[in-house]
Each structure stands twice: as C-alpha cells, then as structure tokens.
Design a protein that fits this description.
The chain has one domain: Immunoglobulin-like (Sandwich), CATH 2.60.40. About 25% of the residues lie in helices and about 40% in strands. It contains two helices and nine strands. The longest helix has 21 residues. The N and C termini lie far apart (about 85 Å). The structure holds copper (II) ion. Copper (II) ion binds next to loops.
Length: about 140
C-alpha cells in the first residue's frame, strides 16, 4: 500500500518534470542585449535603461539597480516594450563615472529568478558643460 502510493507520487513528479522540460526552457532568462551595452563608454547621461532577453520577462517580478560607486540611482517604472525586454526610467543624475547595473527577473509563469550584471562607464563629454550653459541661457 505504502509502496504503490510512493510510485504514484514518483510517476506524477516525472510527468510534471517532462511537461516542464518539453518547454525548451527551465526558467532561466538569458540576457541577449542591453542599453547601455556591457562595457560601453557613453559620452552622455542615461535617462533610461533597457534589457533584452531570450524570453518574455515579467516586469512585476523584476528589479533593476543602478550603482555609481556606492551611490544607488533609482530605476523605476519597470515595464516591457513588447520585445522580450524590460525598460526602466533612471530617476537621478548620472555623472561621469563607473556604473554597475544589476538585474533580477523571472520569465512569465516561472518562479525561478535569473540575474546578471552589466558594467559601463559614463565619460565627460567635451561639449556637455558648454551645451548645458547654452540651453540654460536660451531659456
Ligand atoms: Cu519603454
């Protein structure tokens, strides 16, 4: 009696496992591309970030963190643009420096958390201070 119950349980688990495995993925979300790109050197501030994945990511279960040295710059309003992507708005200034972007996400209908990091640099642009004071004096 005890034995057959165990067998039933095992069989049910195997069936579930096979069903899951048939769907090619195991809940791992892989990053395909990003803005800024990993290793990029940008000559301008960043107002939004975007991540492209190999499958549909769930914005409700995703976080994006942006760090400039020890300063954390909020990335808010995470949403998808319908391209297996996540987009977030950078709420704060991004002065020249080294940046680390940390992302956590899950595929739609998955519990498994995938994560990764992107490093990029924002360099001083030669025209930045000039154009800034220009546009300020114009208004
Ligand atoms: Cu968007």
């Amino acid at each position: 009696m005890e034995k057959s119950r165990t067998m039933k349980f095992v069989r049910r688990c195997c069936a579930l496992f096979l069903l899951t495995a048939a769907g090619t993925t195991h809940g791992d979300v892989k990053l395909l591309d990003s803005f800024p790109k990993s290793g990029a050197e940008l000559g301008e501030t960043v107002t939004d970030v975007r991540l492209w994945f190999d499958e549909e990511a769930d914005p409700a279960h995703s976080t994006i963190e942006l760090m400039n040295s020890d300063a954390r710059i909020p990335v808010v309003a995470i949403h998808t643009m319908g391209e297996n992507d996540l987009m977030g708005m950078v709420r704060g200034s991004t002065p020249p420096g080294s940046y680390r972007l940390l992302w956590h996400t899950t595929a739609l209908n998955s519990e498994k958390i995938s994560s990764g990091e992107i490093y990029f640099t924002i360099v001083e642009s030669e025209s930045e201070s000039e154009s800034e004071s220009e546009s300020e004096s114009e208004r």
